[in-house]
């Protein structure tokens, strides 16, 4: 379960980030207009969770109403987070649970994007995409997303081509798209979905839990599919395990290839690693 304290950890991560050279920050990588020093565009009414530093206190003194400044980059640049919520993501225990781990990565992008005064969108997908955010890119929104993510019960089958293509049609501004998934689907279908998003800057995080690459069992074993009712009884010996590992690695290589062919930045994320180490690998180029 993700707790609100996770946001406090993100604040500490952000403080450490501020001490890193600016050339390493994703704001420099994603758009020249991200961050402070932006061109003022307009005002909107203050909403709970907005950064107090963007409140125009002079305007408040004149109107007795709280307004926050909007900047041109906020209108023109959006970070889209897509988290796989299919049944195969319901795997792993505790902090190593795949969906929870992936959701934390996505929440990190949403939170720090809001801190940089840019817009974000946050959605989960299986056979279709379901948007979880309410269109308010602030800390309060991220706090609500923690609850939304905790309420997600990973289920169904991920239809990468259909779901990602449908979502791509909703993107109407300069964007960075972050896709977090185990990508346990035919590599061609994964590639077709990523192709639909490839006109944007694209980050692909392949989430792997302990026990997926190396079978955690031996002897006579019953395997049950997570995304169907199929099952397989087999004897797990050295030859079987070696063949499984080869197929696992071949599929991983194929997913990485289709991602890089779409000029995506690809990262393998192991859920037994500290989540902020993995997030730092994604956030910093």
Description of the molecule:
With 285 residues, this protein is of the alpha/beta class. The chain folds into two domains: 5-29 and 77-283, Rossmann fold (3-Layer(aba) Sandwich), CATH 3.40.50; 33-72, no CATH class. Helix content is 40%, strand content 22%. The chain is built from ten helices and ten strands. The strands form three sheets. It has a six-stranded mixed sheet, with helices on both faces. Strands 1-2 form a two-stranded antiparallel ribbon. Strands 8-9 form a two-stranded antiparallel ribbon. Helix 5 links the parallel strand 3 and strand 4 (119-125). Helix 5 packs antiparallel against helix 6 (139-151). The longest helix is centred in the C-terminal third of the chain and has 24 residues, at 238-261. It is elongated. The protein starts with a helix and ends with a helix.
What distinguishing features does this structure have?
about 280 residues; alpha/beta; Rossmann fold; 2 domains; 6-stranded mixed beta sheet; two-stranded antiparallel sheet; 10 strands; about 40% helix; elongated
Topology:
Layout: H1 5-18, H2 26-30, E1 40-45, H3 57-63, E2 67-71, H4 72-76, E3 77-84, H5 98-115, E4 119-125, E5 129-131, H6 139-151, H7 160-168, E6 174-181, H8 187-197, E7 201-208, E8 219-224, E9 231-236, H9 238-261, E10 265-270, H10 275-283
Parallel strand pairs: 3-4, 3-6, 6-7, 7-10
Antiparallel strand pairs: 1-2, 4-5, 8-9
Helix pairs in contact: 1-5, 5-6, 5-10, 7-8, 8-9
């Amino acid at each position: 379960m993700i707790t609100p304290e996770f946001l406090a950890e993100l604040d500490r991560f952000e403080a450490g980030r501020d001490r890193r050279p600016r050339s390493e920050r994703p704001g420099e990588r994603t758009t020249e207009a991200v961050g402070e020093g932006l061109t003022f565009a307009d005002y909107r009414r203050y909403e709970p969770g907005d950064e107090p530093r963007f409140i125009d206190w002079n305007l408040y003194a004149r109107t007795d109403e709280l307004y926050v400044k909007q900047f041109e980059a906020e209108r023109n640049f959006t970070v889209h987070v897509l988290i796989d919520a299919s049944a195969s993501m319901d795997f792993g225990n505790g902090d190593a649970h795949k969906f929870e781990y992936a959701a934390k990565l996505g929440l990190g992008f949403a939170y720090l994007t809001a801190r940089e005064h840019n817009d974000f969108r946050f959605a989960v997908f299986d056979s279709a995409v379901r948007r979880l955010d309410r269109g308010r890119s602030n800390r309060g929104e991220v706090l609500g997303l923690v609850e939304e993510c905790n309420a997600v019960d990973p289920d169904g089958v991920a239809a990468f081509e259909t779901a990602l293509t449908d979502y791509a049609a909703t993107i109407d501004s300069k964007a960075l798209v972050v896709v977090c998934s185990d990508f346990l689907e035919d590599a061609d279908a994964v590639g077709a979905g990523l192709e639909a998003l490839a006109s944007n800057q694209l980050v692909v995080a392949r989430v792997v839990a302990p026990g997926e690459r190396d079978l955690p069992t031996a002897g006579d074993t019953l395997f049950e599919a997570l995304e169907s009712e199929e099952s397989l009884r087999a004897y797990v010996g050295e030859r079987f395990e070696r063949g499984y590992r080869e197929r696992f690695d071949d599929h991983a290589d194929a997913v990485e290839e289709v991602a890089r062919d779409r000029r995506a930045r690809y990262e393998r994320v192991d859920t037994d690693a500290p989540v902020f180490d993995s997030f730092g690998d994604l956030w910093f180029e």
